[in-house]
Design goal:
The protein is mainly beta. 4% of the residues lie in helices and 42% in strands. A hairpin with a 4-residue loop joins β20 and β21 (322-327).
């Protein structure tokens, strides 16, 4: 495998290293802001993980243990969807992300990620065609279209999915708590990859011609659990750091985000990690948090119900038990408000009507609908 020092030299020779980045704003404990929304609880689940809307307002919800549900637009009716593969839900494993294809109305395709059974194992990207309705639904023609490699043991699966405006599919992969794979270009752990809609490495990916895995778009990530495009077509991630050092990153091709060489946090055993400004060749986060908030998800709000949120990021926080509003600015970013929710927030999404929907974490986690006061 390519080792870290060799990678640094390679980047310097290839011109992929970037100019020194400004110190990312570090947000510590922040007072909760007044909530500009009413909260309605629509349903409850067993450790829900992800949420996606269909064009008609119905919802798809995944649960950690391996169940995918189809819900009515008001959340009052549900049916378990058949055809879901077996999931390894031990530890941090889960039936994870779910996303409808941008042209779902025509092709009925649903994309989802899950931690596959086996030891060692990896996260899998799959898709199937949604058949049926609230009286009975299943995914037909379920196909694995991409697998993380190498296979290892550990957590940090990530597995978030985002479709680009041009139709490419971006997929986030954690480093499985193994640290150095994030810096190794012959695998995709600790990477964001760019794929075709069929799961093949997209032509023109930036490191393919330089000896890297042909799918890699960016690397040096720890556990990117939020992935979304903003209204300008820029890709962002929300990423769990170590002890402190949670991040919001602007994801750019061929950039190295530094894990585990640099971080604005520290190891859990107290050992220091050099901060981003000490090594200018690594892309610094636009926002980082210490103490940690444990970001679980990322939405770029595009609706009209909350005009002050338009074009800004909403981040679900697990340990922070909050919904966090981040102004993405013209290239920088900063936390604008923190709304205390009193529960761990696992997922955040936007409905067709512009309302914001949250999933609480753990058993009994509720589906919440936020509408303006």
């Amino acid at each position: 495998m390519h080792r870290i020092n060799a990678l640094c030299a390679f980047l310097a020779l290839s011109g992929a290293a970037v100019a020194p980045a400004a110190q990312a704003p570090i947000t510590g404990s922040r007072p909760a802001a007044p909530q500009p929304f009413e909260i309605s609880a629509l349903a409850a689940f067993d450790s829900p993980w992800a949420l996606a809307f269909l064009p008609d307002g119905r919802m798809l919800v995944t649960e950690k243990a391996g169940r995918m549900l189809l819900l009515s637009a008001d959340g009052k009716q549900r049916v378990a969807i058949g055809g879901i593969p077996e999931v390894d839900s031990s530890g941090q494993g889960a039936l994870g992300e779910v996303v409808a294809h941008p042209d779902f109305a025509a092709n009925r395709l649903v994309y989802f990620s899950y931690s596959a059974p086996g030891s060692p194992n990896g996260v899998v990207l799959a898709r199937g065609k949604l058949i049926g309705n609230l009286k009975g639904a299943r995914l037909d023609e379920v196909t694995t279209i991409y697998k993380a490699h190498p296979l290892v043991s550990g957590g940090h699966y990530a597995g978030r999915i985002a479709f680009a405006p041009d139709g490419h599919l971006f997929f986030s992969l954690g480093e499985r708590q193994k640290f150095t794979p994030a810096q190794e270009l012959d695998g995709v752990l600790g990477k964001v990859v760019r794929l075709t809609a069929d799961g093949k490495p997209a032509p023109g990916n930036p490191l393919a011609a330089k000896g890297g895995d042909p799918a890699i778009w960016s690397y040096g990530h720890r556990n990117p659990l939020g992935l979304a495009f903003d209204l300008k077509g820029r890709l962002w991630d929300a990423e769990m750091g170590p002890k402190g050092g949670d991040e919001v990153n602007l994801i750019l091709p061929a950039r190295n985000y530094g894990w585990p060489i640099v971080s604005n946090g520290s190891h859990y055993d107290g050992r220091d990690i050099p901060d981003h400004p000490t090594k200018a060749e690594y892309e610094a986060p636009k926002v980082s948090w210490n103490p940690a908030i444990s970001p679980s998800s990322l939405l770029i709000y595009s609706g009209k119900l909350f005009p002050n949120w338009h074009g800004k990021a909403l981040i679900g926080a697990l340990s922070g038990e909050a919904l966090i509003l981040v102004d993405l600015g013209g290239g920088g970013a900063q936390e604008e408000a923190r709304y205390a929710m009193g529960k761990r927030i696992r997922a955040v999404d936007q409905g067709p009507d512009g309302a914001v929907y949250l999933l609480e974490d753990k058993e009994g986690g509720r589906l919440l609908k936020l509408t303006p006061k």
